[in-house]
Amino acid sequence: MADLSERIRGGALRPGDKMPTESEIMNQLGVSRTVVREAISRLQAARLVQTRHGIGTFVLEPQAQQSFLGAASELTVLDVMAILELRISLEAEAAGLAAQRRTDENLKEMRRALDEFQQHVAQRTGNAVAADVAFHLELAKATGNRYFHSILSQLGNTIIPRTRVNSAALAHNDPETYLDRVNREHEDIYDAIARRDPESARAAMRMHLSNSRERLRRAQEAADPTPQTA
């Protein structure tokens, strides 16, 4: 669905413009509703658009594409580790709520994101970021609480790529092995949500993000073994 992002970046859709409805995009591009929703989720993660529930989806101003945390390039590894602590609390509860409230459609979209993630791992493309973001955003949608999705849509595109890049590259891990491990953690979260087990979903998400933080901590130590002072 590169066509939509090209319209925005090329100026055909300007900041403040309302995006076409799902049905209109389906008719214009000849794609399914599922494909359209996935594309909108990616545009949200890239901070190109914002969805206002009950109103529609609107193109954002260019400067609004940065997270409220600042540009990714401005964040240090220690910043990312601190934000992962925040995400552990936020997303563990989101996973529990998703297990209680998810619909079959939510589950289908999460499965689609995980299948895409697996495909990137299998093909060794190393470009699983969009699928990773999509999975976490779909889980947030499944809570039925739009504020989870609003916050994570700002965190996701900034934090997930940086944890992947730093943890794998700085620790000199094999990217395929690294992403395979992350994928297994995602599957544990999905399985708990699928069987409507909120406690297991919370535990699986907490484990996933705690592992991410620990991997990043080890990567930081490998890159800079100098002891940190308080």
Describe this protein's structure:
GO terms for molecular function: DNA binding; DNA-binding transcription factor activity. Residues 211-221 have a biased composition (Basic and acidic residues). Residues 1-62 form the HTH gntR-type domain. This protein is mainly alpha-helical and 230 residues long. The chain folds into two domains: 2-65, Orthogonal Bundle (Arc Repressor Mutant, subunit A), CATH 1.10.10.10; 72-223, Four Helix Bundle (Hemerythrin (Met), subunit A) (Up-down Bundle). It has nine helices and two strands. The chain has helices spanning 2-9, 22-29, 33-45, 77-101, 104-123, 129-142, 146-170, 175-194, 198-223, and strands at residues 49-52, 56-59. Strands 1-2 form a two-stranded antiparallel sheet. Strand 1 and strand 2 (56-59) form a beta hairpin. Helix 4 (77-101) crosses helix 7, helix 4 (77-101) packs parallel to helix 8 (175-194) and helix 5 (104-123) runs antiparallel to helix 6. The protein is globular, with a radius of gyration of 18 Å.
Report the portion of residues in β strands: under 5%
* Rounded mean pLDDT score: 80
Please outline the major beta sheet.
2 strands, antiparallel
What CATH calls the topology of the largest domain is: Four Helix Bundle (Hemerythrin (Met), subunit A)
Subunit organisation of the chains: single chain
The rough form would be described as globular
What Rg do the Cα atoms give?
18 Å
Q: Helix tally?
A: 9
The H/E string reads HHHEEHHHHHH
> Total number of β-strand segments?
2
Structural class estimated from helices and strands: mainly alpha
> How many domains make up the 3D coordinates?
2
Q: Give the uncertain stretches in residue-range form.
A: 161-168
Distance between the termini: 48 Å
What is the top-level CATH class of the largest domain?
Mainly Alpha
- Name the helicity range: 55-70%
In the CATH hierarchy, what is the superfamily of the largest domain? Answer: GntR ligand-binding domain-like
Widest sheet: strand order? Answer: 1-2
